[in-house]
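Blackboard transcription, Thursday session:
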Amino acid sequence: MVKKIPVEKKVLSENDRIAGEIRSRLKDLGLLSLNLVSSPGSGKTTLLEKTLEALSEKLKMVLIAGDVQTDNDAARLVKAGGTDVHPIMTRGACHLDANMVNKVLVETSLDGADLLIIENVGNLVCPSSYDLGEDGKVVFVSVTEGDDKPLKYPGMFRRSSLMIVSKLDLLPHCQFDVATVIENARTINNDIEVIQLSSFTGDGMDEWYRWLKQNIQDKKQAAK
Amino acid sequence: MVKKIPVEKKVLSENDRIAGEIRSRLKDLGLLSLNLVSSPGSGKTTLLEKTLEALSEKLKMVLIAGDVQTDNDAARLVKAGGTDVHPIMTRGACHLDANMVNKVLVETSLDGADLLIIENVGNLVCPSSYDLGEDGKVVFVSVTEGDDKPLKYPGMFRRSSLMIVSKLDLLPHCQFDVATVIENARTINNDIEVIQLSSFTGDGMDEWYRWLKQNIQDKKQAAK
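(Written on the board underneath:)
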């Protein structure tokens, strides 16, 4: 087991090199890119379905949907109106890496795109170590999970720009305190932004759309 | 990245060696051991709390609670009546391994114990690769997650003996079909047993207790 750490470091530094290339290309394009991370079943795909339904006529979105196995999520996104959806099956790997994402991006025209969203494998640990060249990670916590998740998985919350508290419609049925999860997240990462929403009822979705549009605009401005 | 696979193989074979030692010791003792695996927030700890409240006077349980960070789960289990609870903080690692478990077990008296339960780190991918010397893995799927989880994370479901469909009280509020999740799990693993329950309302808990008692008895019989 002695060799494990240096080899992991080598893998991570190769990952960072490719992520840097992705970041550079996206910067030149002024294209906002987000890396969506969470436990399995926290509502990433459902939020993207609703986002496509609401915004796909106004925004040109490129979507990458990562899963260990199946392209179920990608199929759902196409059905919801996604016209530029790319599944990545990791076939056992517990996270996306920059090389997997880059292989998709080099074959994809990004001209005129407003937004690149990468839906990572459902896993609150490993994806936090792999930079994909994104502008920010968006971490989901569903109210059906515990409100101590930020403390138990600090790496992910430390590296995320936005926390989405999802499935807000289930809050009356769950022992989950929204103020506590926010407090816990800010203990780990004082700068993390927070949006509470329910993709099912639509509560909070306008705030998410505003956040997206503002960040798209800021990224485009910075490229000029 | 070329070296990664051989090193992982070496780590895994060392893990398997230690897991074999644990398994051998537990076999001699006739002590049933279970490895609880799931997404974060699927209800592993809550089920254990209820199990302690119901059975700790009748069964001597040794509990190991793994988390990336914090000993919150272990503290909850002690509060629920656990007298032999051992936290393992992995400090960044995405799974328990046999060495971590063995370090606890060599310092723990297992005399007279009926049941060893290891609550793994919440992660549906990586813990599936690490044998902990257990008799069986118990995989949780909460009804707030998608019913396609077995297809998306096949490794874990292939290697599990029992699937617990948890948070059954939330079913009326979720788009989740129990028959579908069972069908999907059995597509991956035809032998997997299934128990549906709610730790909150108590529905299905008797079936879980019966399953535990039967398997404890079978293990003891086999050691005679």
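Lecturer's comment: The mean pLDDT of chain A is 95.
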